[in-house]
Amino acid sequence: YVVTIAVPTDPIVTKQRFLKKINLPFDDKFSSEGRPLDLFCSVCNACVSENTKHCAACNRCCSNFDHHCMWLNNCIGGENYSGFRKLTSAFLLFCIVHVGFMIAMVPFGLLVRATDKVPRAVQVSMWVQSLVTIFAIIVNVQLVIFHAWIARLGLSTYDYIGYKKKLKEKKAEVVAGTLTEAEFNEWKQKALIFPEKPKSSIV
User: Fold this and answer.
1) pTM score of the predicted model
2) Active-site residues: which are they?
């Protein structure tokens, strides 16, 4: 719930909108982290922080943008990324416990033999739930591991997606002969450690 209602909008954008409403100028040259505000969102018509990105789904600039989660119907950024990771871990734990209870019921025949207490329809329903939960565990394990990995590297999901797109382009350059294998390997070693940031003044 907290992750869903969190507002990850860049506070710099919020401040500019507030000042505009009360007819005061925005003259900040640096963000709260002390970095120069040299990026500008043409959609929000506002200066933004370095790691801010405009989310087309939410139509707002998200501070420390990671990704837009369609399941939570919200952007995941600096404001709620920690909560998002806790949520995925808690959901994974819930699914594992659920499957554990189902397995514990097997020796008692509660999922195999129909009884007055557990009719066949309920058993079928529980088997379907178990299969869906096992699938959810497989998907969620990958999600938890992925976010633990990129967090360790200091990357966001958006950075990683950008890396994968650039990787495809670099491979095409190697095939075309415009980039050597040595240059490609050197770029690949540095790409995840030093992800490319937007060079344009528009985000």
Assistant:
1) 0.79
2) 69
Reported as a pLDDT band with limits 50, 70 and 90, residue 38 is: confident
Structure confidence by residue, pLDDT tens digits, 48-103: 888 889 998 888 899 889 999 998 889 999 889 999 999 999 999 999 999 888 88
SS3 labels along the chain: CHHHHCCCECHHHHHHHHHHHCCCCCCCCECCCCCECCEEECCCCEEECCCCEEECCCCEEECCCCEEECCCCEEECCCCHHHHHHHHHHHHHHHHHHHHHHHHHHHHCCCCCCCCCCCHHHHHHHHHHHHHHHHHHHHHHHHHHHHHHHHHHCCCHHHHHHHHHHHHHHHHHHHHCCCCHHHHHHHHHHHCCCCCCCCCCEC
Does position 198 have pLDDT exceeding 70, yes or no?
Answer: no
- 67 close to 73: Cβ distance less than 8 angstroms: no
Phi, psi of 135 (to 5 degrees): -60, -40
pLDDT of residue 137: 95
Question: Which residue, among 67, 75, 77, 63, has the nearest Cα to 32 in the 3D structure?
Answer: 63
**Closest by Cα among 66, 36, 35, 42 to 52:** 66
